[in-house]
Design a protein that fits this description.
Elements (H helix, E strand, L loop, with lengths): L4 E10 L2 E11 L4 E5 L6 H9 L6 E6 L2 E2 L4 H6 L2 E4 L11 H7 L4 H7 L16 H13 L5 E5 L7 H18 L2 E5 L3 H7 L2 E6 L2 E7 H4 L4 H8 L2
Parallel strand pairs: 3-8, 3-9, 6-7, 7-8
Antiparallel strand pairs: 1-2, 1-4, 4-5, 9-10
Helix pairs in contact: 5-6
The structure holds adenosine-5'-diphosphate and magnesium ion.
Length: 228
């Protein structure tokens, strides 16, 4: 089976300085790939480049079997959804309006995230951080993407919300065949649902293991990425 997303030798940077080198990533249908790494390792730059929101300086991206250099809007129309690091809700709009402007299927969003029902007419800016992140994920998943790129969904949130978000991502993969590339600081949370784990260090992929290979022993993983 061809991967939904494949990069080969992907490099990217800012203002002529390369910060991500030679990244090979494959994400298959129904697969959750966790991308771990210390702060500044290059995870966000990798996701932005894979999504078309940031230019590659070298290498290739194949999306749904086709090489692409298209911008994010075009990749999104083909079935890529991105939940970026900064919560991407419109704070002056209500939950309902947020779903509408992102052309999400509102019924599906509320079915996936019933906790949004009582909040539907509340301004997104008045929601808690966790609720805003649930709304971001609801917007992404209720557009029926084939591929989801999610950057630090759990950043700064309470453990209960973190589990809820990770569980929703896992459901999308298991029940709807969505391929997921999940950037996550918490290795333990990511490993609960990941099929494969990649660790990035100083702009390069230094480990690429199946969940089975990692097993229950996180020490290898944590030693690798906590040392920056
Ligand atoms: N907009 C930017 N301009 C210049 N350098 C940046 C920018 N964003 C990130 N960087 C640098 O690129 C490197 C990788 O950052 P990033 O991809 O955000 O890592 P991570 O998401 O793993 O924390 C860091 O050294 C960071 O300082
Ligand atoms: Mg980041």
């Amino acid at each position: 089976m061809n991967p939904l997303l494949a990069s080969r030798g992907l490099s990217a940077g800012y203002g002529g300085t390369t910060v991500v080198w030679d990244v090979d990533i494959d994400v298959h249908e129904g697969e959750v790939v966790a991308l771990l790494g210390a702060n500044g390792a290059g995870k966000t730059t990798t996701l932005l480049t894979l999504s078309g929101d940031h230019p590659a300086s070298d290498g290739e991206v194949h999306l749904f079997g086709q090489p692409t250099k298209a911008p994010l809007s075009v990749r999104a129309s083909r079935g890529l959804a991105m939940v970026p690091e900064d919560r991407s809700v419109f704070s002056g709009l209500t939950v309902r309006e947020n779903l509408r402007v992102s052309r999400s299927d509102q019924d599906q969003a509320l079915e996936l995230f019933p906790e949004l029902v009582p909040l539907i007419d509340r301004k997104a800016g008045l929601l808690s951080g966790g609720e805003q992140q649930i709304l971001s994920l609801a917007r992404a998943l209720s557009r029926n993407p084939r591929l989801l790129l999610a950057d630090e969904l759990s950043l700064g949130l309470a453990p209960k919300i973190v589990s809820r978000l990770i569980e929703a991502v896992s459901d999308a993969a298991v029940n709807r065949g969505v391929g997921v590339l999940l950037v996550e600081q918490h290795a333990r949370q990511a490993l609960r649902v990941a099929d494969r784990v990649m660790v990035m260090r100083r702009g390069r992929i230094v480990l690429n293991l199946t969940a089975e290979e990692v097993g229950k022993d996180l020490s290898l993983l944590e030693d690798t990425y906590l040392t920056g």
